[in-house]
Design goal:
Helix content: under 10%
Mean pLDDT: 90
CATH topology: 60s Ribosomal Protein L30, Chain: A
Number of domains: 1
Oligomer: single chain
Number of strands: 7
CATH superfamily: Hypothetical protein, similar to alpha- acetolactate decarboxylase, domain 2
Distance between the termini: 19 Å
Order of helices and strands: EEHEEEEE
Shape: globular
Low-confidence stretches: none
Number of helices: 1
Radius of gyration: 15 Å
Length: 139
């Protein structure tokens, strides 16, 4: 993972570049910890060799997993980082493009980068505290 601050403004915006083999959520969490981010929003584009998406089944109170075991383009990824320390969580949704032009989308539970993923992370000028019930799969 490589990252760089884009300017000297507050709130700060960073570009985080993930590389082949990187775990998307693990690397974003490591970046947030390293920078001490409490609240931030992000978007991303790039590609992955595999991913696990989730659809939250409200009746069962759990994510139904949607495995993607093929090379896909990350057409859109958007989410936020909220909290601090061990209570920091990442919530992300993604739309993935397949070779045949079809798409798959949902909550991002896991993904492995190939060849790259470019993430734009923008700090929030104010802290956000999530008051909803924690769902499994939110990191």
């Amino acid at each position: 993972m490589r990252s760089s601050a884009l300017g000297e403004h507050t709130p700060q915006t960073y570009v985080v570049v993930l590389e082949t083999g990187d775990s998307v959520l693990d690397e974003l969490m490591a970046f947030a910890r390293h920078r001490g981010l409490g609240t931030a929003a992000f978007t991303a584009i790039g590609a992955c060799s595999s991913a696990t998406l989730g659809f939250y089944d409200f009746e069962q109170q759990r994510y139904l997993e949607i495995p993607i075991d093929e090379q896909v383009e990350v057409l859109t990824m958007a989410g936020d980082i909220v909290g601090s320390g061990d209570d920091r969580k990442i919530h992300s949704h993604v739309v993935l493009g397949r070779r045949d032009g079809t798409t798959r989308g949902g909550h991002l539970l896991a993904a492995v980068v190939r060849p790259t993923l470019e993430v734009m992370v923008t700090e929030s000028p104010r802290e956000v505290v999530r008051a909803t019930t924690r769902r499994p799969g939110c990191r």
